[in-house]
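User: Let's play a game. I give you a shape written as tokens, and you guess the letters that built it. Ready? Here's round one.
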């Protein structure tokens, strides 16, 4: 019996993808669900993971890069002396991509499933071109959107991660350094002032200007409170999956 691995990111989409994969392929394949724990995620993500694990009836395994046993983005930034730039962020490379590659070196599988939704077809296509082609686009094939994932989990009695209730569009790390939007960083400053201060201190120490305001990169302490990006009144998505990217809407902020 061949194995399908589902990469679970503590978000609504990957939870839905795991459930649908089990329903469709569970009788013909071994289904393994694997998570990359990240220290900077909201602590409620662990509660969500446990709830989803009970719902799936499959143990959610943990996979880390042994070079960073604390699974901390801050450790990666300190070690690499780099936080974010045009090539993305090293935390995704070290804590997700290389962690996945380490897992793959120790385990056999035939296909993988990611939480790409029907409104993310281009992301799926880019992944299979730049990473690997043995991806089963479960949510795309079923035409399930990100909103559908939220609705589905709620209908199943699964409480969404608390980070969503705080106005964030995904369950990524708090203070994601791939974000450049003034809207995003002022939201972090309001909801998690301690995290904002940590990102400020570390980014200034490394000389990294994380936010773009009025067309220029600036340090976080130069960002006026209440400032918002021209292209966005509300928060947009910055995705942190098995590759690192800032979505186009946020990039224009």
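Assistant: Ready! My guess for every position:
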């Amino acid at each position: 019996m061949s194995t399908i691995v589902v990469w679970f990111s503590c978000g609504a989409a990957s939870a839905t993808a795991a459930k649908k994969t089990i329903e469709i392929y569970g009788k013909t394949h071994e289904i393994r669900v694997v998570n990359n724990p990240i220290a900077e995620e909201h602590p409620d993500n662990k509660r969500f993971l446990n709830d989803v694990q009970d719902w799936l009836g499959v143990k959610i395994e943990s996979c880390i890069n042994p070079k960073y046993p604390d699974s901390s983005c801050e450790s990666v930034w300190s070690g690499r002396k780099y936080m974010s730039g045009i090539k993305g962020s090293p935390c995704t490379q070290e804590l997700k991509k290389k962690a996945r590659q380490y897992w793959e070196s120790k385990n056999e599988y035939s296909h993988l499933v990611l939480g790409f939704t029907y409104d993310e077809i281009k992301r799926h296509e880019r992944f299979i071109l730049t990473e690997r082609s043995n991806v089963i686009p479960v949510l795309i094939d079923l035409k399930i959107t990100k909103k559908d994932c939220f609705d589905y989990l709620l209908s199943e009695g699964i409480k969404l991660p608390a980070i969503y209730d705080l106005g964030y569009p995904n369950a990524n790390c708090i203070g994601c350094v791939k974000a450049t939007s003034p809207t995003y960083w002022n939201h972090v400053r309001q909801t998690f002032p301690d995290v904002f201060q940590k990102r400020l201190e570390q980014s200034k120490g490394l000389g990294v200007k994380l936010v773009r305001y009025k067309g220029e990169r600036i340090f976080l302490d130069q960002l006026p409170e209440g400032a918002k990006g021209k292209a966005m009144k509300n928060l947009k998505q910055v995705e942190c999956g098995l590759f690192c990217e800032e979505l186009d809407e946020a990039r224009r902020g």
